[in-house]
């Protein structure tokens, strides 16, 4: 039996037990006698009652951690085994990581701490940045057990993601059996079906944020249509509520497709709005702005939208439809060209040529979005030549978003792809165009 002050591998002196599970795992705070630093030692007892999958998960955790290099993930240090004589009659396997001084969010909740909206937003941002790193590895790494007890608020006030015991390197499990893991209330439905995807970690993060905001475990909150009901228990920005609701959609295709997109949406705060869902009309009809150069044609079977590039935005408008930025840019280019030509005539001529080429390219670009009854086609063209073309099943589209404040982009989201329309649309222009796209989605589903 392992005891306090016992030395493992002639190096790690056990100080105190941090936790244990019924599956035979123990976590200890230990002193590394070689470096005189505190470390965390996770131990797994290989008993006859243990499922073989438990050892596979433990080994996978060690393998994955060796390849990770992120400050807010405790660094891998060592992996070893202990023979039966030292381990009380059963062999043990050990995993050593950096020790993070601090408290888990679960401990803080149990101590009665209340988390403000600002604190929860910051926690969300830090965890999403960790998930972006994990999910964009090749192959993607899925944590699969995000919850308050696995998030440590360090003494340096940073949030750390710990316990990779349920980790999955996505490509490594294709076509093979594996243990279903996760914690009830935090793990989404598809994870219990053995179909975890990056959006599964986003669900778990969203459920964790709900716990922090309400002080109640998501498993204990009421549900409606399998969705966690929490909005009536908090007093926070409505956009933040919408964002968390999107994170915790029961259908994986309705969540944000990637952690990077979720972070982008969260940081834009007031700059994005999810339009009404199918079958629900907008509060008021928006009309085509008089200044827009966007071409829109609708028939019973097709909606076609053509968005021309505006060169250097010489025809761009602000939220009130008043041209301003293009005139300023034109004056700036003229003044800069004059100054260069006065001192370096040859350089000035080259600069003029480059400006004209850039303007010609920008002026010849256009984006065409064609929506049919069941299909989406997006083309980007330069003077009639198509250099990008995407096609998508329209049934896969589950969200139309506005992003930005002064210079707005429209985002059409599917489970795997986000399509962007417009680089610097005015507020009225973008809202009108997004409305027309949403109306088409509503119309073709009737």
UniProtKB/TrEMBL annotation:
Lineage: Bacteria, Bacillati, Cyanobacteriota, Cyanophyceae, Desertifilales
Protein name according to UniProt: Serine/threonine protein kinase
SMART domains in the cross-refs: S_TKc
Coiled-coil region(s): none
Keyword Membrane: yes
Keywords carried by this UniProt record: ATP-binding, Kinase, Membrane, Nucleotide-binding, Serine/threonine-protein kinase, Transferase, Transmembrane, Transmembrane helix
InterPro entries, alphabetized: Kinase-like_dom_sf (IPR011009), Prot_kinase_dom (IPR000719), Ser/Thr_kinase_AS (IPR008271)
Transmembrane parts of this sequence: 343-361
GO molecular function terms noted in the UniProt entry: ATP binding; protein serine/threonine kinase activity
Keyword Glycosyltransferase belongs to the record: no
Domain annotation Protein kinase: ranges: 12-283
């Amino acid at each position: 039996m392992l005891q306090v002050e016992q030395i493992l591998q002639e190096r790690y002196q056990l100080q105190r037990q941090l936790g244990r599970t019924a599956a035979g795992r123990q976590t200890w705070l230990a002193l590394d006698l070689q470096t005189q630093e505190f470390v965390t030692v996770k131990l797994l007892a290989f008993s006859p009652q243990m499922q073989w999958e438990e050892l596979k998960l433990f080994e996978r955790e060690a393998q994955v951690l060796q390849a990770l290099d992120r400050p807010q993930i405790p660094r891998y240090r060592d992996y070893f085994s202990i023979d039966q004589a030292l381990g009380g009659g059963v062999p043990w396997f050990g995993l050593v990581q950096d020790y993070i001084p601090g408290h888990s969010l679960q401990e803080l909740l149990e101590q009665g701490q209340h988390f403000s909206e600002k604190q929860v937003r910051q926690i969300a941002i830090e965890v999403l940045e960790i998930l972006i790193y994990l999910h964009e590895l090749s192959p993607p790494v899925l944590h699969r057990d995000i919850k308050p007890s696995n998030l440590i608020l360090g003494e340096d006030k940073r949030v750390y993601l710990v316990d990779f015991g349920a980790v999955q390197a996505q490509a490594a499990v294709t076509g093979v059996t594996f243990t279903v893991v996760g914690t009830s209330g935090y793990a989404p439905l598809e994870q219990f079906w053995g179909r975890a995807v990056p959006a599964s970690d986003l669900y778990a993060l969203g459920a964790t944020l709900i716990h922090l905001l309400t002080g109640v475990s998501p498993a204990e909150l009421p549900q409606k249509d399998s969705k966690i009901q929490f909005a009536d228990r908090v007093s926070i920005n409505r956009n933040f509520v919408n964002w968390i609701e999107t994170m915790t959609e029961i259908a994986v295709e309705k969540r944000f497709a990637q952690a990077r997109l979720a972070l982008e949406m969260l940081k834009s705060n007031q700059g994005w709005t999810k339009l009404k869902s199918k079958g629900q009309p907008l509060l008021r009809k928006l009309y085509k702005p008089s200044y827009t150069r966007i071409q829109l044609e609708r028939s019973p079977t097709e909606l076609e939208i053509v968005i021309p590039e505006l060169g250097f935005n010489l025809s761009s408008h602000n939220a009130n439809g008043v041209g301003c930025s293009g005139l300023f840019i034109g004056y700036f280019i003229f003044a800069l060209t004059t100054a260069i030509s006065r001192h370096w005539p040859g350089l000035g001529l080259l600069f003029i040529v480059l400006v004209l080429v850039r303007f010609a390219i920008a002026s010849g670009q256009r984006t065409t979005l064609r929506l049919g009854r069941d299909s989406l086609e997006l083309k980007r063209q330069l003077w009639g030549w198509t250099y990008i073309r995407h096609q998508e099943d329209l049934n896969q589209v589950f969200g139309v978003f506005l992003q930005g404040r002064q210079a707005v982009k429209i985002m059409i989201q599917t489970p795997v792809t986000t399509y962007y329309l417009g680089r610097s649309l005015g507020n009225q222009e973008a809202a009108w165009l997004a409305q027309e796209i949403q109306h088409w989605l509503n119309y073709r589903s009737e």
